[in-house]
TrEMBL record:
Keyword Nucleotide-binding: no
GO MF, one example: acyl-CoA dehydrogenase activity
Keyword set includes Nucleotide-binding: no
Protein name as it appears in the record: Long-chain-fatty-acyl-CoA reductase
InterPro entries per the UniProt record, alphabetical: Ald_DH/histidinol_DH, CoA_reduct_LuxC
Organism phylogeny: Bacteria, Pseudomonadati, Pseudomonadota, Betaproteobacteria, Burkholderiales
GO biological process: bioluminescence
Pfam families listed in its UniProt record: LuxC (PF05893)
Record keywords, A-Z: NADP
Species of the source: Ramlibacter tataouinensis
Amino acid sequence: MTNSKPIAPMIIRGQIITDHLVEVGGRGGDLAFLTPDWNRYLDKLPLGNPTKLADLYKLRFDDILDYAVELGKRLNFADNRHLQEACELSYLTAPTTPSLVKASYMGLSRVLERENIVEAVEASVGIEYLEGWVPRRLLDGTELEVRCFGARALHIVAGNAPALSLWTILRNMVLRSDAIIKAPSNDPFTALAIARTMIEMAPDHPLTKHVTVAYWKGGDTAFEERLYQPQNIEKIVAWGGFASLKHVTRYIQPGLELISLDPKRSASILGRQTFESEAAMREAAVRLASDIGALNQKGCVCARVVYAQSGTDDDGVQKLNDFGRLVYDAMLKLPNSLSTAPKRYDPGLKAEVDALRLDDEWYQVIGGRDGEGAVIVSKIPEAVSFSAMLDDRTANLVPVDSLDEVMDAVDAYTQTVGIYPEALKDELKDILPLHGAQRIVSLGYAAGMKLAAPQDAIEPMRRMGKWISNQIASPEKTPAPWLRPSIN
């Protein structure tokens, strides 16, 4: 601590830097912290000569697994002072409440369990492609070898969940890549805590030496124009909101690829079976409450607009009102490791919700008076006009007669669709992707994202690698271009 302000060091491939400090503010203005002046270290951030990646290729995949598993043990929250300090500071910067932040930190070590890593890498890349050249013979006799290489990458990490920093570091390790991680203003400490743990564990290990963590103000064009160049980095992996991702696109050019994990909205679909028994309604209500309340609705995966095949007649709307009350009650009972009353209920959203209370002919508002979250039940088959603002545990239930009415509401911005009952998926899972849906889950499991699964309709780990081919051909086995007959 200096002048009562915490320091977010810069870590450049095993070196912890705390010189030339400047003061910056975390998002929301709750915390000012000190960090090295990024302009002074611009020339040291890039790896430079790509031959410096060669030390990673002396490692076997089992060596990488051993390193990751040992790191996972050292990320046990109860024993790791770096995580503990980062967690305390993140209480002020994070968009979620302390119990949710702490629960995220306590779950980090599970990400690095050996079986989970093997499952994720095998599913998305294939371990054999990371270990060496994988051969096959083509129809024309060509012998083709393919291998996945690492890259020099810049990662612009989102700050709504601490685990995202660890996912980034893990993907970097298994791909044998070099990572520059731009710490987000609403989570400037998590990646640093993990990197410091790596340095304490194995300061001279190649995996430690290929992680850089730094904070700089997004939009510092003079700085970014020099760093975001193909001679410095080959791939930019960017999470974030519309404005920040739009800003990054200005730097994309030949030799510099953007892998965009951009902002999305998620929804839920409830089939008519949901409303055929009280037991089904209660089960669906608990599941839906989980999808709305998880991370206090700060994730793209969280449900916001819910289309319910309750019917739009008076009886159907009344059933949906009763169901909305069950959802609201279940949301208030969620464990505080999953959901709490929001840290700071958005005042603009609250004004919109409160205005609907005066419009009881078209809407029923359940809860929300104390900023704890609310369920808005539409009495017409239309979402509220401010559906894009839904946040802080606020969802809109929309009655429909037919599931065909839902399809127009699904588009390229739709990430996750939670569905109930499970049998309804067979009817929808081949149709929803045509409209833009990117992930289909059982209702209640929206927040259970898996490293082994695609994300945002891409396979990020696969995209982060460089897929190189080696063609082996001779005239004896493969038709030779120079032996083609001339055309008269």
